[in-house]
Structures are given as C-alpha cells and as structure tokens.
C-alpha cells in the first residue's frame, strides 16, 4: 500500500483491525479482506506535553481532523500502544568509519523498548543499499541479529541516502503490522543516489510510515544537511533529532524506541469523494478543556487514489 488510504467499510474497521492483529494457532497471521468502495484515511498521531512526554489515555472526543480546511468525522479510533513494523536505515559511508560502537549501542537502546510482535529490519547504505538481514529473513524482533547485521558490512564509500530511504519504504509494504516507522541515521548528505531528493520526499509523502531522523551532522567537521532530515520527519509526522555527541545519538535511539509504540490511530472517510490523485492537506487538533494545548505530530497529508479499475 503506497498511501494511508484503505478501501474499507467504516463500520467494520474496528473488527477488521482486531482480526488483523490476531494470530492463528500455527503462528500465521490472519489478513482481513475488505470489499467496500469507501476510502478510509488512517492517520497515526503522537501527542506530547510541553516536557516532550507522550500524553496517554485521551478520548476520541478531544481529536479533530481537518482536511483541506473541511472538518471530518472520525469513524475509527484506537488509543492503546500498538506493535510496529520498523526499518533502521543506517549510513555506513566513510563518515561513519569510527562510529560502529555508537551505532550498535543505539540499536541496543532502541531495541530495549521493542515488543515481541514488532517487525524490524535494517538497511545499511553507502553508495550501495543493502538489506542487513539474511535473504530469507524479511523481519525480526531479535535485537542481537539487528546489531550484528550492521557490523557485517564494511564501512566506507559515498552516500546514497535517497535510494536507501526509498528501498526501506518499499520493504515496509511487505510488513503485516499496520503501523509503520523508519529510523534514519545519517548526516543528510547524498552524493551517490540514482533517485533525487524530490523522488524520496514524494515517496515518503505517499507512504503511511512515520519517519524519525537522527542527524550526525553536528558530529562531522564538514557538517551535513539537517534541513532535509527535518523536512523528511515533518512531512511524515515524525521527529528529527540533532545530537551533538555520540551519547546523545544513543539517547535519541532510546527515546524513539519508546515513542514509536505510543500514540493514537484514527480514521475517517473524506468528505471529498473525488478520486483525482490530488494531494490532500491534513491537520489533527487535540484540545482538552482546562489543559494546555499539546504538541501534535502527524503526517502533513496524503495522496488521494485515482479512480480506475484497479482501485
């Protein structure tokens, strides 16, 4: 699925979501089948107080969705922590020659908050983009395996950041969990991709993945492109971190590991029923009477489906 739009029947969403999260006795996962022509837009929303802590246990009544200026009716709401499919996209170019220990420590800190149902994978890149797990393993929740995949590839070479992010988003489409996230560790520079910056941003905007970026620009003498990493995170409802030391990089990974499971999932059937392939801007506002307005992180919008025989 290349956009956060599902073809489902509104009244069946809650049951279908529960079905998708139910495993059979033999360990395989049941996948629901939808047949309605309604288009449900699903958004993953993170809510934080002024200290940066996640705000839990909010009711649906406090959430308001606006699409292109028009209020929408929320038909699906879920507030509990949820397992995720997550890709760790790690720069392995020459700028990372002395930082293997930092990367491994970051992955371990991130994995400390993982759930058994999580699906995780690694993308390691320099001028080449490689999936870190063995060919027969699409996803794992084993933190040791994740860390060892990063040590198996020699460090050095140029940087193909755009290609790596796009490859990771493509791989997320194979996941069974509905909530998707990427964690990108890079200085934001690119000098080797076959795709452009705009290609990557367009692909991210059409995805339903939340992207968290951990910039190493401040650790490098030559700097990097923090602006791009911030834009990538903001576009998808994620957060960009700008650590100044290696321990702060590890702390950022630990914080992200906790945040990706938190938050709220909500859905609505747009009042704009045109299937025109246009980009729709979305806002989510959260207001609790008597409390300070919290910070809300959510993707900036989505691409509407086109009306054709395949949709």
Structural notes for this entry:
By secondary structure, the protein is of the alpha/beta class. The protein folds into two domains: 5-81 and 262-303, no CATH class; 85-259, von Willebrand factor, type A domain (Rossmann fold, 3-Layer(aba) Sandwich), CATH 3.40.50. It is built from seven helices and 15 strands. The longest helix has 14 residues, at 246-259. The protein is globular.
Strand order of the largest sheet: 8-7-6-9-10-11
Cα distance spanning the termini: 11 Å
Mean pLDDT: 84
- The helix tally amounts to 7
CATH homolog superfamily of the largest domain:
von Willebrand factor, type A domain
Name the CATH architecture of the largest domain.
3-Layer(aba) Sandwich
Radius of gyration: 19 Å
The share of residues in helices is 10-25%
CATH topology of the largest domain: Rossmann fold
Task: Give the number of domains.
Answer: 2
Strand residue content? 25-35%
Q: What oligomeric state is this?
A: single chain
List keywords for this structure.
single chain, 311 residues, alpha/beta, Rossmann fold, 2 domains, six-stranded mixed sheet, five-stranded antiparallel sheet, 15 strands, 24% helix, 25% strand
């Amino acid at each position: 699925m290349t956009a956060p739009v599902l073809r489902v029947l509104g009244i069946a969403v809650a049951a279908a979501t529960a079905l998708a999260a139910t495993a059979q006795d033999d360990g395989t996962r049941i996948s629901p089948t939808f047949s309605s022509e309604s288009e449900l837009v699903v958004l993953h929303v993170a809510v934080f107080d002024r200290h940066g802590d996640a705000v839990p246990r909010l009711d649906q009544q406090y959430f308001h969705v606006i699409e292109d200026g028009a209020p929408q009716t929320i038909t699906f709401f879920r507030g509990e922590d949820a397992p995720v499919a997550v890709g760790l996209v790690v720069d392995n170019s020459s700028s990372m020659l002395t930082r293997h220990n930092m990367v491994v420590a970051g992955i371990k800190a991130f994995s400390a908050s993982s759930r058994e149902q999580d699906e995780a994978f690694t993308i390691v890149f320099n001028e080449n983009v490689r999936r870190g797990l063995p060919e027969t393993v699409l996803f794992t929740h084993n933190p040791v395996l994740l860390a060892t995949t990063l040590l198996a590839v020699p460090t050095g070479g140029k940087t193909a950041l755009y290609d790596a992010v796009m490859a990771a988003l493509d791989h997320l489409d194979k996941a069974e969990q509905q909530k998707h996230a990427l964690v990108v560790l890079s200085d934001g520079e690119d000098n080797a991709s076959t795709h452009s910056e705009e290609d990557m941003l367009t692909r991210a905007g059409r995805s339903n993945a939340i992207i968290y970026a951990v910039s190493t620009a401040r650790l490098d003498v030559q700097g990097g492109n923090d602006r791009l990493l911030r834009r990538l995170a903001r576009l998808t409802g994620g957060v960009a971190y700008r650590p100044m030391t290696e321990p702060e990089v590890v702390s950022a990974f630990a914080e992200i590991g906790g945040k990706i499971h938190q938050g709220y999932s909500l859905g609505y059937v747009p009042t704009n029923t045109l299937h025109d392939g246009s980009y729709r801007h979305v806002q989510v506002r959260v207001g609790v009477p008597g409390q300070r307005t919290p910070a809300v992180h959510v993707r900036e919008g989505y691409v509407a489906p086109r009306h054709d025989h395949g949709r």
